[in-house]
Amino acid sequence: MRVEVLGPLRVVADGRTTDVGGPRLRALLARLALEAGHRVGHRTLADALWPEAEAAEGPENPVSALHSLVSRLRRALPEPGLLRSEPSGYRLDVPAEAVDALLFERLVLRGHDALRSGRHAAAAEHLSRALGLWRGDPLADVGPLPYAEAAVVRLREVRLGALEDRAEAGLALPGEAPRAAELERLAAAHPLRERLRTLLVTVLDAEGRRAEALAAYEAYRTRLAEELGSGPGPELRALHLRILREEPAPEPAPVPAPRGNLRAPLTTFVGREDERRLVGERLAEHRLVTLVGPGGVGKTRLASVAAADTAGRAWLVELGAVTEPDAVPHAVAGALGLRVSTLVEALSVTDTLLVLDCCEHVVDSAARLAEELLGRCPRLRVLATGREPLGVPGEALCPVSPLTPEAAEELFTDRARAVRPDFSPTGEVARICRRLDRLPLSIELAAARLRSMSLETLAGGLDRRFRILGGGSRTAPPRHRTLRGVVAWSWDLLTGTERDAAERLSVFASSLTVAAAEHVGVTAETLYSLVDKSLLETNGDRYRMLDTIREYGLERLASTDRLHGARAAHAACFLDLAERAEPHLRGPGQTEWLARLSADRDNLLAALGHAREAGDTGTAVRLGAALGMFWAVHGDHASAVVHLRPVLRASAPCPAHGSPDGPGHRGDAADADGSGGSRQDTNGSGAPGRAGAEEDSAASGGKDDLVREARLRAAAAYLLNATFAGELTDARAVVGPPPDASDPVGAFVAALLAMAEGRSADGTAALEPHLAHPDPWTRAMLWLARSFLDGTAGDTGFGPKDVEHAVAAFREAGERWGLSMLLMSLAYARAATGDTGEAVAMLEEAQTLTRELGTHHGQRVWLAMAHVDTGNSDGARARLEEVVAEAASIRQVALARVCLADLSRHDGDLAGAGRHLGLAREVVRDGEPPDRALYSAAAGYLAAATGDPEAAARHLGEAFALADAMPDMPMLAQVAVGVADLLLRRGEPERAARILGTAHALRGGPNPCNPDVARLTRDLRAHRAAYDRASRLTAGEALAAVRAERDGLTAR
């Protein structure tokens, strides 16, 4: 669809013309067309259509009237979908070339540039085409609106300049000199415009009409003197003097020599401003610069753009089609229109940039020629591109990386609109670009596929990327027409050893170290060679293969039946790492080894998944057991449950009665968390590898015993993480029957199974014999399990005492995760009893520990909220806003927003609270039960505050059900406070006071600094007796009371 405004406004689509009726509709379309492709704000449009002069007579609500007008305009257009709604505005979604006024200005600019560079024929062509777009007065039927009048003045001025440029170009072209009559008409219409007068005098003189030329000059000089008191400019005076002297016209200036052979780009250049600037800086400092990067990353386009930015001549030599190394000099000479024998002479005359593109397959020959030319041509610079450096002395490298996420999405959208003008990007675009490694060629091939498939189909088909990403540009080199061609070109340039190594490394799910590469049979030397050839990227001491290259390598492994063996070697590598790391995760070395495992998280999970798929139960169980503490310390409890559940279901349950040489022989019950796998001293100073593990296997009766022992530790890991994730409902089905509790690991598993099944007394009994275990970390975990059992039994008195025992043991072990978590729990208990001083001290220590564990640690949000119960809402808000600002974890940001919603509600900012919950909803809705409980409780409080008791009851009921299932006594107390708030708002203060008292009983104290509790306590002073009676209930009795209140809440 085209919009034409250089004359009466009309719309043209499919060869048919549509007239838009009504001056207001035409004015709206014209205003949007003048900024085609860009959003125009509601207010800007309203002001354009109803300016101040018409304000009194215009609509009462211009923006509302605008919306109605847009609806009418859409109905009038042949393609209504091109008038798009944007945030706070509208956009006419057509390219600038589809609006004659915008195309006119672009053509005039091109013509002017061509004229100034001496390309008169090109200038005449551009300018003639531009002037031919005019059909009459611009915006003639839009009406006398200020925006239109301003546009008309500008367009007329541009047209007049175009007429002058066209006349000047014609003077330099045989048979195309302008007619004197036309120039006389223009000069009469613009009598003070000197350039027109100069052209007129020149043409009259050229036609042999010397007297008329002199008369034209004299008339102009007289008018200037009379009206402006000035005289003609130097150029016109010099022309007048030459005519008086009857001197011949000067010969036209010679057309400058070609500045090179760079072609005008056919598509936009997206992103890479930093790289473009870097290449320019490198070229200013070095005479040889090489852009290196993987195939399809955009080296050629970047080189072309950078070359166009340079001041001297630039010549592009495409070496991709050169098949023989000896042909490289001939390819360079041919591109410059020279013979090889004259290259040095020609390149020595002036400043020249030679771009040698695609050097990787003829790298030796390209390097020799570059060195020879640079040595003999001091005014020459060379910009080369390839998968690897040329290796010439003085070479400066510019690595070319994939696009930034923003630039990748912009590129995809731009190329998609080229094939589907109605394309509107969605969140799938970001996912597609990420899957394609943000490689420009891959993105362009993918966008082109939108001609024949939907965005969703394209995204779903990327697992078969080599099959669907073909059919690129017919004019592109063959290697760039398909994604497979790009990668295969790089692969074929490798040696046999390099190809084998690249294929072995393709099983790594993320980056790797030199040690990991050597573990799967790739030497450090070969690894470095793959880096040089752009098959691997570096980041510090780690190496990464792009997903596109990795998928090609996996295809190659599968086609030669080597995939299973490569994955087995990969799994063995990361089992070794996990089993060496596990003991360190429960002592002073926790932070260092947590970071090491975090760097390889994707590889560890891939190794676990591949072991399961291959039926290697032993490796899967051992790896799951070794990762238990990693998941727990990371706060990634849901992930632990998801990955350990199938591992445990696929392996035989632990026997109910173990032999004396069974799991208990270690006396090392960090195994109680299910995370250990290698013997070492209890302080975690040793770090045995797989050899040590195999020795353990032999000592305990062989590999089967080792796997059975690991299965018990994996069960412990599952139960620990499932407890924190609130996912214990199917514990027996996953773990099997309770194991023998005669050793710490078995006791830990038996205790948590008992808790899951509501048999708290049995669980406590299983733990009792081991609570004085000599190893501090083992002792801490057992006391932690006992505190869980106390909570489910409703014994709030024993819970804090058990936590204190666990804190002391964790402190002795030097372990930060458990210590920080339980300090926070103790701080909550102290705050509940009003001991805020000690609570604050505990929170500060916990904060220090979590910072040492890393900024992504999941306890940060809960730690921040604990400050609320000490009366430090400002401190809580600062910590939560820090989490949001860092945006390191989507889940943590969502939880922080839920907590910020509570703080906003406390401040009376109910709208702000709603915004925070709205931003968190989608993430938390599919999260772990504790996350959903926190969200539902906050939503219930807010609904009650905004006067929606039904929604409040529903949300609080959901929160209670989730907290009751875990069970989570602090959350149950929080829900009880919310129920009390709702009852008070319903006008039932006596019952509200009673439920507030049950919250006191559930948490073991009044929690006087919490803003909600303090408000309700103040408002319910007259019902203190009901509160006091309920606060003296046992935790179990209080829980029953809240359950009963919850069941009847929605019925009232």
Your description of this structure?
This protein is mainly α and 1052 residues long. The protein folds into 9 domains: 1-176, Arc Repressor Mutant, subunit A (Orthogonal Bundle); 178-251, Serine Threonine Protein Phosphatase 5, Tetratricopeptide repeat (Alpha Horseshoe); 273-399, 3-Layer(aba) Sandwich (Rossmann fold), CATH 3.40.50.300; 405-486; 494-561, Orthogonal Bundle (Arc Repressor Mutant, subunit A); 599-652 and 665-674 and 704-727, no CATH class; 743-814; 830-926, Serine Threonine Protein Phosphatase 5, Tetratricopeptide repeat (Alpha Horseshoe), CATH 1.25.40; and more. The strands form 4 sheets. The protein has a 5-stranded parallel β-sheet with strand order 8-9-10-7-11, sandwiched between helices. A 3-stranded antiparallel β-sheet has the order 1-2-3, with no helix packed on it. Strands 4-6-5 form a 3-stranded antiparallel β-sheet. Strand 12 (537-539) and strand 13 form a beta hairpin. The protein is globular. InterPro entries: BTAD, OmpR/PhoB-type_DNA-bd, P-loop_NTPase, Sig_transdc_resp-reg_C-effctor, TPR-like_helical_dom_sf, WH-like_DNA-bd_sf. Keywords: DNA-binding.
Summed up:
Pfam families: BTAD. Belongs to the AfsR/DnrI/RedD regulatory family. 60% of the residues lie in helices and 5% in strands.
Question: Key features?
Answer:
Serine Threonine Protein Phosphatase 5, Tetratricopeptide repeat; 5-stranded parallel sheet; globular; 1052 residues; single chain; Sig_transdc_resp-reg_C-effctor; 3-stranded antiparallel sheet; BTAD; P-loop_NTPase; OmpR/PhoB-type domain-containing protein; 13 strands; mainly alpha; Rossmann fold; DNA binding; 60% helix; Arc Repressor Mutant, subunit A
